[in-house]
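Batch manifest, entry 17 of 40.
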Amino acid sequence: MAFAVVLAGCSGAGDKSVDGEVLVSAAASLTNAFGAIEVAFEEANPGVDVVLNLGSSSGLREQILEGAPVDVFASANTSNMDQVVEAGQTGGQARVFARNSLQIAVPTDNPAGVIGLADFASEELLVGLCAEGVPCGDLGRQVLEKAGITPSIDSNEPDVRALLTKIEAGELDAGLVYVTDLISTEGGVEGVEIPQSQNLATGYPIAVLANAPNPDGARAFVDFVVSDQGQAIMSEYGFIAP
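Output type: structure tokens
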């Protein structure tokens, strides 16, 4: 692992006054949790405006490596953060601040009768994964490989939100998404548990970037995410403490 893992600290966000925009590029699976953290952080720092750029971790990584102005990067896996670290684009240690695992997502009432990972090998069902290179896609393929299943994939989606949208619309019978995304979905999608013996977890690292336009604001935001208050918010949205 190309970065040092630092467990969550206990410092609060309001210890030092910060202001200005804080540009945060974060994995799509963090959409709801970071939306709540944005509100709480801005309340603790009235002069700050957090701007969230949400998308696939691999796409956000490429934006950073191409020189996009970003203060903070939060990835859904370590490999994308590793590449940013190895390129010298981080301004300090990357910290794993949360963990997540997968669940099978199906449309409401599970019309195809999906019961487990073995159904992903069925050519009669329409199944989807996140694309290769996207954290949820890589993790999904690792879970299927661990279970000895060769999936019959009908759709590769750019991020977990796009995959959920197709499942909710009934365009797919099943897909592999993060547990946290199912928790935050308001109807239209149900979950089918993956046995713990078949499932895998992924760590979410966060880092201040070397060329951050607002380094003080960036450090304060990261400190907030790993603080007790930030971790409580992450837990509310189903994330596991590091």
